[in-house]
Amino acid sequence: MANSVVPARRAQATTRGWRARESLIGYLLVLPIILLFLGLIAYPFFNAIWLSVTDRIIGSGGNFVGLRNYLWLLNWPDFALMFANTWTIAIVGVAIKFCVGLGLALVMNERFFGRGLLRGVLLLPWALPTFVAVLTWRWLFEGQSGVFNVILQSLGITSGPVPWLGSTTFALPAVITVVVWKGFPFFAIGYLAGLQAIPQELYEAAHVDGANAIQRFRHITLPGLRHVIMITCLLSLIWTSNSFEFVYLLTGGGPSNRTQVFTVMTYQLGIQNMRIGEAAAVPLMFLPILAGLIVLVTRYILREEEG
What we know:
The chain has 307 residues and is mainly α. It contains 13 helices and no strands.
């Protein structure tokens, strides 16, 4: 009996040794990812929280001031306007991009001459560098000799130049126009891929049953695209609300803060005015909303993978 117990204990010890070595190797393999996460995500995030409760400016250490920066932002006269501008651009822009992208996807899903060329041209706004695209639109909107003003005046629609980017009436719609133009290909290509994944037999069966085009769109196309619609809208809402180039290059937040958004204000406070503490507080005030959107996207993707 004793002779049989000793080999069994040795086997167990060998197994435990192999498991310990495998665990150690696993931890060593994961260690670079953990260090990368701590260095690029965790440290900047918690450092931003610390900076937001200090009065630090560039060139000085700063002192702890608690929630004073957040209270200053809430008491800033145009804070509500900045909040409204940020989400107006994001929500209205995403809604229009959804409609334009879905419409173009439905057109490109049909068979016609030049369809391949149209699909290639459709990607140009998405592929063009944002800096170049926005500067081009700024030239189109230019208040004196811009293309739009030249066309409108030559047609007799306006008697003088319209200050598109300098007007409190037209500045925000102009920014939304550029946001939509730059982002609608993302929706169109995504929806086109989703349309091609829907079995054609469903449309043929519905046509045989007497369903018209609207009914086929409502009961086959939209349900077949619901996953793509959810992901594209949520991702685009996050990207658009965090965008910086459009507003900064077109209007700089003006006129009279009519197009001010939190990303531009963060840059103005932190880089131009060197008030790092207050600049760090601005995005953190929008963090709960953005984190909620990220959680929605993540949970939806995980649920789809499990389903």
